[in-house]
Amino acid sequence: xxxxxxxxxxxxxxxxxxxxxxxxxxxxxxxxxxxxxxxxxxxxxxxxxxxxxxxxxxxxxxxxxxxxxxxxxxxxxxxxxxxxxxxxxxxxxxxxxxxxxxxxxxxxxxxxxxxxxxxxxxxxxxxxxxxxxxxxxxxxxxxxxxxxxxxxxxxxxxxxxxxxxxxxxxxxxxxxxxxxxxxxxxxxxxxxxxxxxxxxxxxxxxxxxxxxxxxxxxxxxxxxxxxxxxxxxxxxxxxxxxxxxxxxxxxxxxxxxxxxxxxxxxxxxxxxxxxxxxxxxxxxxxxxxxxxxxxxxxxxxxxxxxxxxxxxxxx
Length: 315
Fold this sequence. Notes:
By secondary structure, the chain is of the alpha/beta class. It has a single domain (6-302), classed as UDP-N-acetylmuramoyl-L-alanine:D-glutamate ligase (3-Layer(aba) Sandwich). The protein contains 11 helices and 13 strands.
């Protein structure tokens, strides 16, 4: 089959979450799940639901959780021909607790699960030869050495005309911010589109503020998109700076919304949308993503996004 337009790789997880607020993970309580998850799986699944061809490179176990992920990809049209099924490892799991102050607590089983078995050998150069876009995240650079080298290999195999987007997605549960910054440096250098969240603009540049850090990177020729959640997003280039207001929605589950936002921004740029329109489109997808329980469950279809934007059109 033809190479997908958009490819990503990395950790394939299911997510099991607390039902009620303020149920910590260190005592008995109620859970719901499993839900298909993983930052880059959420990204590619959203790309596919928005109508573009998407493929994934990853590893799952030969178990029910692995089937949960593969069934979701099949349902939404993600090419999973480069997903390896390991009989020796169980599929990765993330346990999540939510608290009234808006914080979340994650407990991961991934480094020693199938998710941590991704290796450079899983990256077939022929699969990337015709792609238009590769998306990488800091989370997958940090999980283990073999995953990091797989990401680097995919970047090296990327056609020169293809674009690379990079979301730091720093997880303090995995490694410290300083360690992740060092691991991310080669990818950030190559990235055409950088998609930081709060704190990451200044982290990667040493600037006093996120905004100044984003401006520094934009002056290098990158498109930089600062994700600000309920405040919307800000787009920086060497020539302009745009603030894109958020859409008012009732938040049910924020997990995965940033990954869906990144996917929508990718789709918008592939379709040639102006930056202001691309930011609004991505904000709409991110807003819809938080309205449903489960990290992938709120990823909207193209028709849902267009209906949402029509309802929120300026009078």
